[in-house]
Amino acid sequence: MKGKRELDDYRIEQISYVKNANMIRKIEKGFSFDNKYIIDDTYLLRTFLNENEKKRRQEFDYINIASNYSSFVPKGIEYNTLPEIEMSYMVLSYLPGTDGEEAIKDLTGTEQYNAGFLAGKELKNIHQVPAPRNYPSWYITKKKKSEKYLMELQQVNIEESIKELLATYIREHEDIMKDRPNTLQHDDFHPSNLLIHHRTFAGIIDFQRMDWGDPVHDLHKLGFFSKPISIEFTKGIIDGYHDNHVTDEFWRLYGLYSAMHVVSALVWGQRLSKEQYNKMKKYSFAVIKDHDNFNNSVPTWYR
């Protein structure tokens, strides 16, 4: 007798992990278009259309590689395609826990900092995975993206002084990206993709946006999505990442990437909806204020 099985699509019953499962729970939370299921509290099944087959298989392969550098990353167990239903899937080991955005508020200040410290240490471990050989220069690829967003920023409905502030700061500092290393980037590192279990950090999940580039860039969303949830947790991430030896070079890069993220967030917010734009504008202005109009690369919440 099978237990509770929350399946949206019974065509995936042919997957052996589904066919033999006693308990299947669907995960409703998250921004991914994947269907996600917990199987017998042991495996995580992600199903998706096979239109991005090459990228998703690469994601699976590099999750597996990253798991060799950190036990807080799920292990890749199986990847396969079901051509008859135009679907692919990956099976990963299941990491128990609650996403940080929800769980951190229930921790003490010390627990928040300690959880962040561990998360930062594990991110540093993941950054030991090098980019493929002959991968394009980080400086060239990031500068090209930045110029595109700065052009689009001109169409965003904010004060001209803000546009000028951001463009000037970025162009005056972008040369520090030259000769930066290219490593694996999670590229969506913030509390919603970090797990808390038994009142401590328990895992890094959702590598769907993984990319290659400067490892410091993986921290660029902290001011947007982590600091508003917990300053202690966010400070812990930075301290853990640097093993308590945070350098001036890091802060210069962090300030630059924060400014770049403000630009892209405003552009994307306006593309999506008025509601998203207002949300991104609120976060963006908070980051600008934290950096004293980018007169200081170290944000006020860390000083």
UniProtKB/TrEMBL annotation:
Pfam families under this entry? APH (PF01636)
Q: Where is the Aminoglycoside phosphotransferase domain?
A: 24-244
- Annotated membrane-spanning segments are none
Q: Which residues form a coiled coil?
A: none
Give the keywords, sorted.
Transferase
What's an example of a GO molecular-function annotation for this chain?
Answer: transferase activity
- Record has Transferase as a keyword: yes
* EC nos: 2.7.1.-
What the entry lists under PANTHER family is as follows: AMINOGLYCOSIDE PHOSPHOTRANSFERASE, AMINOGLYCOSIDE PHOSPHOTRANSFERASE DOMAIN-CONTAINING PROTEIN
Name of the protein this chain belongs to: Aminoglycoside phosphotransferase family protein
